[in-house]
Structure formats: C-alpha cells, structure tokens
Task: structure prediction
Amino acid sequence: MNIELKKWTKEDDKALQRLCDEAEREYLSDRLPYPYTMENAWWWLNFVCENEGKNGVFRKVLADGKVVGNITVERLSDVRKNDGELGYIIAREYWGKGIATEAAKMICDIAYHELSLTRLTAQVYEENLASRRVLEKCGFTLEGNLKGAVTKGDKVHNLLIFGKLK
Result:
C-alpha cells in the first residue's frame, strides 16, 4: 500500500466531510462536530489555508490515492511555542494496516522542518492501545498520566502524555 501525505485543498471538502462524519469518536475530542457538515468542512479548510506552515501542518492521508485520514501538528503557544501537538484520524476500515504509523512518522519530519519545532506532544486516552502503539513506533516516550483528566459522555478517562524531541 502506498501511503502519502498531501496538503488539503478547498476541493477536498467532500472527502473531509465524509471522513470526519464517519469517524470513530470513542477516543476523539468533542471539538470535532457531529454530524460533521459541509459548513464544518469549509470552516476547517479555511482555517488550514490561513495557518498552514505558520501555526501548524495539516495533511490528508492517502492510501493508494484515496483519502483515508487526516493528520496534523499544531504549534502550541506562549512558552511552548517550539512544541507542536500531533493529532490524527484514520477511517475505521483502514485501522491495523500501519497507515497511522507511517503517516505519523512523515508528519513529524515535516513539522520539525517547516515549523522549526524542537518537540512534539501527543495526548492519548489510556485505553487507546492502538494509538499508544503508533506513538511508540514513531519514537514518542510516555511522559505522564493525567488521572481522570477527560470526561467523554458519562465516562472519565486517564489521559497519557507522550513526547518526542527533535
């Protein structure tokens, strides 16, 4: 399988809308709207255009030419301006194929170079073993466990903090 990362364009609105609307939400932030509408897609694509290369790197994940995910590194602010937070979504039917790992390795290199970052951070629900493994394969180290830090629906979760230095 050929994995590529490409910049999002405004012509990707339908692919983005479908990806985000169908996303498995168990371990995602509630800031991802549901249902995910075309208006949400347009807002996000405009945000990406304004912030690409300045405050983040934002890529669609392609597997054999088909959009199967979204991966980003967003620069943090203030005294953490040299740190970027990694986040990603891969369509459920593509889980377990190494796509997230390959995409994460690629975006880390892009983010270090294009944003001149010295560190990357990722936050993962403790139960999300697949994402934890992706980060470990990409050289991230477990740095902490924030007990009871996340409430998703009516369930409280621990949040693991992973870091990677350039």
